[in-house]
Amino acid sequence: LSLLFTHGVVLDGDVSGAYLTAELDGPPTYLELEWEMMPEEWRRCKHPVCRIWTGLYGLQRAGHGWGKKCEKQLFRLDYEKVAQSDEHTIYMRFFKGKNGIVEPVLIVVYVDDFLVVGNREIAMVAHKEIEKALGFTPKDDYECEEFIGIQVQALEPMKDGCRRVLMHQTTYAQHLVDDFERDHINGKELRQMSTPALVRDE
How many CB atoms lie within 10 A of CB 141? Predict the structure, then answer.
């Protein structure tokens, strides 16, 4: 992951309610509503049900339907899976920039979270194409600062020009501490101590 953040720009995006945007494949599936949720006219029926046409969170097949839709849209945009990778959700496509140089854009998909990696100019183009095809949740800045719970912070380059990236899970660790304090010690604050790990600048 660190390699992604040290070459060009990394943009992120997530599709809100992704499963709900994909058709539910497989045998027909029906849902029985709670009595309070039923329309008045349904209450005349003994066991009214409604058919589910799109994926619902909690259904085992819902993720499969979204995965098929996502893959289909990326293939339509001329992306190809990276054959050398053991992962099935890494895609690549080559773009020609304004300077005429052909450069790759890498797409990493984790369920409904996306990373778009490449030269800034072409990565922005690729991000907009995917956003139009799948619908990212709108936000002011798509430059990636966190991905699947891992926070990423660019540091000043070293003297030899190498770019540095700090990767950490401070926010996630704080959530764990907050939950423990709330659930096990009545909200009292845990005693703090300095980290036992060596801090090295490499």
Answer: 8
Residue 43 confidence (pLDDT): 81
pLDDT band at residue 5 under the 50/70/90 scheme:
low
Which residues lie below 8 Å from residue 163, measured CB to CB, with a gap of 6+? 6, 154, 155, 157
Cα distance between residue 127 and residue 90, in whole Å: 15
Could you give phi then psi for residue 113, rounded to 5 degrees?
Answer: -105, 135
pLDDT above 60 (res 202): no
> What ranges in 13-101 are assigned the alpha helix state H?
62-76
- With contact defined as beta carbons under 8 Å apart, do 92 and 107 qualify? yes
**102 exposure class (CB count in 10 Å sphere: 0-12, 13-18, 19+):** exposed
Cα 197–chain centre separation? 30
* CA 142 to each of CA 6, 12, 91, 146, 193: distance values in angstroms, whole numbers, following the listed order: 17, 5, 19, 11, 35
- Contact criterion met (CB below 8 Å) for 25 and 64: yes
CB 95 within 8 A of CB 125: yes
According to DSSP, residue 35 is labeled G
Residue type, 146: E
pLDDT category of residue 198 using cuts at 50, 70 and 90: low
Count other C-beta atoms under 10 Å from residue 38's C-beta: 14
